[in-house]
Amino acid sequence: MSKILETAFEEVKKSKFYFVDKTNFEVQDAFIFWTNFSGKANQFGSVARTFNLAVPAEAASQLLALGYRVREEVVGELVDNATGKTVPAKVYFVNIKINMDSEYPPTVKLFSEYKGKKTQTVIADNDTLAILDKADIKSCDLAVHCYMSKRYEGKCTGYLKTLYVIEEPNVVFGGKYDDWDEQNVSDANEVELNQLAEDPNY
Description:
single chain; 4 helices
């Protein structure tokens, strides 16, 4: 069993899912995985920019009724409190599409905090969107807009409307070297040349 699905099963318990109207919804503390923000071609040749969103079981039933394609995977077993019997533990998830080239592109922001300094980066195009594939996501909130298919009645697709991502700081070696000032090689060479120029013996 995929480790990421086991993680999704646990993390989705923290999510707060609610509909803002009959079809569109928001999720706080969302868990997203198997992302393709860069639009890399998959095994079928599709270059769609997408990610998968873990959803609670109750929400999964509601989304399925609306026409969303809801996938489910068994990740283990658990005991039913009502019957005391062992039942399959399932994780539910939906695929969400991203269209940065639409007339109303989604609002995407990346938030970072390191050593007390907080920054936010607005993701405004496909090139910058790709950096989210490499981000170590700590948490995220999102809003999804439902597009009802005109070709297939009763089927709908979720499109990203808003995504706010907080990333984990990239700390290496326990932060041992983080207090050292950074200096470019070209700057260091310039300092050395200036020192030599001031040396009367040079």
